[in-house]
Write a structure and sequence with these properties.
Blueprint: H1 2-28, H2 34-69
Length: 71
């Protein structure tokens, strides 16, 4: 049950992060200042890292749940 709840959470977070990544990439296309570009670049890297981590966690959860279902 805990894994299923976590899977539901992760499945909701991944699209949110994808939207945030797209918005940040778009914002980087509009130069405001060096400082703002640096801030957005740092935020973008953080979002990408979190997305990769959650995607990996999602794959692991799916595998575990599939293995439990086949037992």
């Amino acid at each position: 049950k805990k894994m299923q709840d976590r899977l539901i959470f992760v499945e909701g977070e991944i699209p949110r992060l994808e939207t945030a990544i797209a918005e940040t990439e778009k914002a980087l296309g509009n130069f405001i200042s060096v400082e703002e570009t640096q801030r957005q670049s740092t935020a973008l890297e953080s979002l990408r890292t979190e997305h990769a981590s959650l995607s990996e966690e999602w794959e692991g959860l799916m595998k575990q749940l599939e293995e439990q279902a086949s037992v």
